[in-house]
Design goal:
about 25% strand; two-stranded antiparallel ribbon
């Protein structure tokens, strides 16, 4: 059968299929020993423990921040995790100048079924909770936080965010 995974990107406020790609074996990504297996195991447990979250009233969401210099395997690791879990990837481009807070909320609530959410270079959107100088979009820091983890945030979501500069991120993120 066809085991390829689908990569979606947001086009304004809709998800569109960008491409199909072959799975990436987890062992093909060079990370510290045990890290890849740990991430995959953590994600599997999360996906299997929906009732645990619901019974306790704990938001059923899981997030990972992958950080390091460019070219160290952050995005490749997400593809490998998605491959191991047989999931697709939805890449959210927060640099899209047309997006506002409500648009981001809507996109996160309408993620494609069985897709991991990936936000690449999350440090480039905000510096000290303010829009970066070259930023023309309408997303606010609090709007992004609420979309990711607020009252109306979607349930059952696996989020991976990447950054080259973890030190630039606001602790709230």
């Amino acid at each position: 059968g066809d085991t390829r995974l689908t990569v979606y990107r947001n086009h304004y406020t809709n998800w569109t299929e960008q491409l199909q790609r072959y799975p990436r074996p987890p062992e093909s990504v060079v990370l510290p020993a045990g890290m890849m297996e740990g991430m995959i195991g953590d994600c599997r447990r999360f996906l299997e423990e929906r009732n645990w979250y619901l019974q306790r009233g704990v938001p059923y969401r899981r997030g990972f921040l992958l950080h390091g210099p460019p070219g160290t395997g952050k995005s490749s690791a997400v593809v490998a995790v998605a491959s191991a879990l047989r999931m697709d990837i939805a890449v959210l481009n927060l640099g899209d100048s047309s997006l506002g807070d409500n648009d981001v909320s809507e996109l996160l609530c309408e993620l494609p079924v069985n897709a991991i959410l990936l936000i690449e270079d999350i440090d480039c959107i905000f510096v000290q909770r303010a829009a970066t100088d070259d930023k023309t979009n309408r997303i606010t820091f609090s709007g992004l936080l609420n979309a990711l983890d607020g009252v109306a945030a979607g349930e059952g979501r696996l989020l991976f965010a990447t950054t080259n500069h973890r030190d630039k991120l606001d602790p709230a993120l």
